[in-house]
Design goal:
The structure is a homodimer. With about 350 residues, chain A is of the alpha+beta class. The first copy, chain A, is built from seven helices and 15 strands. In chain A, helix 1 packs across helix 4.
Amino acid sequence: MSQLRKDPIVDRWVIIAAERGRRPSDFAPTRQPVSASGCPLCEGSEHKTPPEVFAIRDGTPPNSPGWRVRVVPNKFPALAIEGEVNRSGIGLFDHMNGIGAHEVIIETPDHFADMAQASPEHIVDVFTAFEQRTHELRRDERFRHVIIFRNYGAAAGASLTHPHSQLIALPIVPKIVKDKLQSAREYYRHKERCIFCDLIEQEIALPDRVVYQNQHFIILSPFAARFPFSVEIYPLQHSYDFVLMDDAERLSLAEALKFVLTKYRTVLNDPAYNLILQTAPNTLPRPGHPDYWDSIQCDYHWHIEIMPRLTKMAGFEWGTGFYINPVSPEDAAEYLRGEVGEEGIADSSPAEQEAEDE
Amino acid sequence: MSQLRKDPIVDRWVIIAAERGRRPSDFAPTRQPVSASGCPLCEGSEHKTPPEVFAIRDGTPPNSPGWRVRVVPNKFPALAIEGEVNRSGIGLFDHMNGIGAHEVIIETPDHFADMAQASPEHIVDVFTAFEQRTHELRRDERFRHVIIFRNYGAAAGASLTHPHSQLIALPIVPKIVKDKLQSAREYYRHKERCIFCDLIEQEIALPDRVVYQNQHFIILSPFAARFPFSVEIYPLQHSYDFVLMDDAERLSLAEALKFVLTKYRTVLNDPAYNLILQTAPNTLPRPGHPDYWDSIQCDYHWHIEIMPRLTKMAGFEWGTGFYINPVSPEDAAEYLRGEVGEEGIADSSPAEQEAEDE
């Protein structure tokens, strides 16, 4: 079983996935993604995955062809679904056993499909799968948080090209989520307003960083974006949890997502990207934490982060948590809105592009 | 001028390096590092860099050939050296102008040299350059922290192949450094001992994660390592600042560094890596902060982090700050000590290697 270990100095957990143990040569950079012919996620290869835990089907039996979206446990999970969460420690070191869920949301039977080109209705099916699995896993009292993410392209960490997302249910609320929750909580205590709602209102008033807006959602180029052309998608109406979307909101989100993914294809030439769904932790009432889970409904605001993988993390970023972003968020918004072409906005000279970090 | 921006939700700063402004097509993944013939860091090309701010020379004049180590301002700096640090804000947003220093430490005149194969005495020259520049920049009261790092290989963010490190002086102490300082401070208040000293003692007592030890330094495979085969190098004797090394310690560190970089070459087939020097923030006495700068001498312990870039950051890591490490730190230490060959330690089956994150 894998193990969760906490860094003795900083508040950071790591999953040591020992079963995935590799020899040094396994990290050779030439390893290529699995081709369509051997793809275990394609329609007709249902026997190559663990049995499905959810699917949207038109009356076909489980684990057979005839589905639109299919969710299966990860064949090589980072965390194991069976067992109890035991915390223990040795001297300065804290660890717990690696309990959790790790699932793959297969978004389409078609190996060569792309979310940017899918119909909004099909994207809604994918959200439905996200919601159903989140509902189900939140019933498990061992899990404190469910994170859903999409790695697109090898540079974003994807090893299979078949369109898919992943879900991980964790026995602890991760640091970045805790930091966001705490910041929102503090702001709410002072102002009795949601910090995200205020942020959205401020951005709409001076819309330099607004990439897109429809009836229910807004796409922002973040003021302090860490990565060029990264965006955040927020529901316009305050909501702490994505599972509370109604049908109209789901369709509106699908259209927003399709808009930005299409812009990535056309403006950025189909870059690798990471998409992360940031929603509230598991909000079932828990003994000892009533305040926490009650007030989260007021102060937290769910959102989606998308980060194209155009730049490399380097020593400066790893060492400081400080990021260098070579594209201003205002320029990025202008490109993604589609107001400028390849001739550019600023007078950045080609000579400057020779040295990336020097 | 570039701008420092603070994320409105979480404590995270970003350098928006607008002068480095790029068009979307500039991020094409095919861009290759500069070859030796056009390299601006080679001996004989001194005119291609800004004038040097430090060099170790045998009597030759500045900005001419005949040097062993040479430090120049970065031609395309992320931060500008001239100007005052002005903080301001608009609504939820905080920013300051991008003041700082950004220098390149050219470690050798030889384009094809490698630190793993350099003599320990030459590596000591590089440390000397680090120390001299840190001393100099700490005199500038605008700067709160100096970070030195080395990006080796394109996957680690290096765009030039000529051996070099970089230095950035910042007007604020970055988050990761603050977190480490605060944790060390809290531990010291409770125990009146340095947490790093205790950690080193605990690791020596049960040396599963000790990679190497010599008279003055120890190399550890961290208990909660985020990345496979990453290491941390600590001085055995408590010291909060790397500039306090004496000659014997410098040589001892050079030998330790050479050991682990050589192991990376032989065991991991010369991977890209990031090296980060984590030392105390600028410790000149500053009005209003006497306690802070006094006690840091007791509670902080400088160190070097080295992270081979063998795995990709993916959505899970970006979204949670949680990491998945597929190699146990104990196995990594065993490989790096050189006790096992390519046949492996664990019984990890090759079949498991097909799906990296699924």
